[in-house]
Amino acid sequence: xxxxxxxxxxxxxxxxTGMGQLMRRFWMPVLLSRExxxxxxxxxxxxxxxxxxxxxxxxxxxxxxxxEHCPHRQSSLFFGRNEDCGIRCVYHGWKFDVDGNxxxxxxxxxxxxxxxxxxLTAYPTRELGGVVWAYMGPxxxxxxxxxxEWMHLPAEQQYASRWNQDCNYxxxxxxxxxxAHVSFLHSLVNKRDSNKAALxxxxxxxxxxxxxxxxxxxxxxxxxxxxxxxxxQFYWRMNQWYFPFYTMIAPVPGEARSFRMWVxxxxxxxxxxxxxxxxxxxxxxxxxxxxxxxLSQHAAVIPGTLTPVANRSNNYLIDREMQRxxxxxxxxxxxxxxxxxxxxxxxxxxxxxxxxxxxxTAVIRMRRLLLGAAKALQNGQEPVAATNGGLYAVRSHxxxxxxxxDFDAYPEIMAAMRV
Length: 419
Ligand code: FES
Ligand SMILES: [Fe+2]
Description:
Elements: H1 4-11, H2 18-23, E1 27-32, E2 44-48, E3 51-57, E4 63-67, E5 81-82, E6 87-88, E7 95-96, E8 102-104, E9 122-123, E10 125-128, E11 131-135, E12 158-165, H3 169-177, H4 199-206, E13 211-216, E14 220-228, E15 234-242, E16 246-248, E17 257-266, E18 269-277, H5 285-292, H6 320-325, H7 334-343, H8 361-378, E19 397-401, H9 411-416
Antiparallel strand pairs: 1-11, 2-3, 3-4, 4-9, 5-6, 6-7, 7-8, 10-11, 12-18, 13-14, 14-15, 15-16, 15-19, 16-17, 17-18
Bound molecules: FE2/S2 (inorganic) cluster (FES) and fe (ii) ion (FE2).
FE2/S2 (inorganic) cluster is lined by residues 70, 72-73, 75, 89, 91-92, 94.
């Protein structure tokens, strides 16, 4: 449970809010590079932290992430002409480069210097790992983007997708780090009755009340959940949460790793970018086909949109017969199952009404870390991770041990999480 003040602080991300200011100290993932693949491509509307923006690639390949609204009379630059190294508003022809400079103002007399006085808000950008990043904070506080493992891998070893969810970012992240729900929401009705019950799935079904151990780090936290196996061993899954909204769930043995970014579009919408990758080899065509169909780590979207096929308007295509006989939820696809739970809690969860148990340990800790960092920033203390990209070179891990110790007591487990 949170007070109303803390719930507001956690969830409101617009300009001038406490969490909005904290997030603006970090580089923000905007969209996939392939969404603006070609020079002079069609501009793409994006919302970030409550701000309406457009992203485009200019004639020389440089990326602009700028205010959607033309500084002249506020019409949308989405309709603009992306040509000759700039985006030109089609209302009166004013033109802006990727840095927001007005480079042409044909509606004013040739001897006017008005164009030198007009600027379009433009944020610094980078392209790393097939993702466009923007920095929306004070220029003097700009740090470096995080160094995630997948950013340095060749394209054949990864697959990325993006989709939208209609709720606040914090409940999306809470749904991700809450390891306890896996034993229910993503489970089968008859756990022995399917080849889908992979190794880890059997453990989830066997011990539905895992023991938690959460360890704070400079970049966020490691959240370990321990389950007892039928042969008396201890199965540990260590998931990662990184400031301010990144997660990496422990991989199931043999499967690709998946990393997710839960980027607040505004207070009630979230843009999700998921990267699945194999550090030691290529991802297969078969894997990519499954991801495209929304079977596991990625969501299948309605073609030409970022809206999942299974969404709130169609009750996530729940099949009640399947729910009776095959799967716990009756909803196909892990992403759709998660989305159904977090979106159905409302656009912004009212955390004054909830009742948290021991299985919510990681959820509680994440809130505390985010709220603490936002309050610290209000008191002048900068977030350490925002300027130390190297802190992010860590990954999730899962392992079996025979003794009843906490995972962080084992140097080899801690070492396995460093990239
Ligand atoms: S509104 Fe854009 S040029 Fe006039
Ligand atoms: Fe889930």
